[in-house]
Amino acid sequence: MHGVSRKTSKPEAEATAEARELRALQSQFLPNHHNKNYTKEALDLSAKLLEKNPEYYTAWNYRKLALQHALDSQPDLLHTILHEELQVAKNALKRNPKAYGAWHHRKWVLSKGDDSFLDKELQDLDDIQRLKAKDQERNFHIWNHRRFVTAMMRRSDKDELDHTENMIGTNFSNYSAWHNRSVLLSNLMEKKVQGFSQKNQVLTKELEFVRAALFTDEEDQSGWFYHLWLLDQIVKTVSPQLVSSWPSHGEVIQLRGSAMDGFFTSTSDKSKFDSVVLPI
Known about the structure:
One of its GO terms (molecular function) is Rab geranylgeranyltransferase activity. The protein has helices at residues 12-34, 40-52, 57-73, 78-95, 100-110, 118-131, 140-153, 157-170, 175-191, 199-216, 221-235, 267-271; strands at residues 252-256, 275-279.
């Protein structure tokens, strides 16, 4: 997607060995899940399984049950328990940065009431986007998770707009950053936040910003999409405009033959007329 090539598949022998190991881990894991076994050994096994297969939703559900059990029995260890669980999700995301189950679990853990992780979470997301492979800069899972975290932190849309500018400056071909910028800018203008109350001035400044990106790499489509969005905001009207009409008011339309079908209740009536004239 977006011109980023997929990684080549693994050699058949290596893939077969991994599949065999994965099946063995699953066969050991399932009895623990069914028997509600939440010992350290059982949890370590599920963590290893998820590191191998981050999309194994049954294991994520098991860990949610295990974590809740631990919190109910040892509420004073909230921070330690959540920290360990975030690390499990982080290891899974290293394997597959686009694993839905891992991202959902991470959100669930952060929602358990310890806000002390939020600043670190935001820093981790910045590190992933800046230091990892280029395709992670526009991984929509990362951007969705970032919106979740910043909402919990009550971080301002203006601060997030500045973040998109930094990300675009690093890589102009960042569709997710451009899209997030359009969402944030719409919110700021709609709320008439200080510095964004004059829509024409804001959009003019944005046009200058995106043109700098287009001049840098005119072949890149992401900037052009944002440019089209800006133009749409500029020409948008409250109600549709009538550009032209045909025929003009006061003219007539003459119907003949089969075009007159529907104007008469019987064929005998229709036979009395060669044509029908309708005023406009």
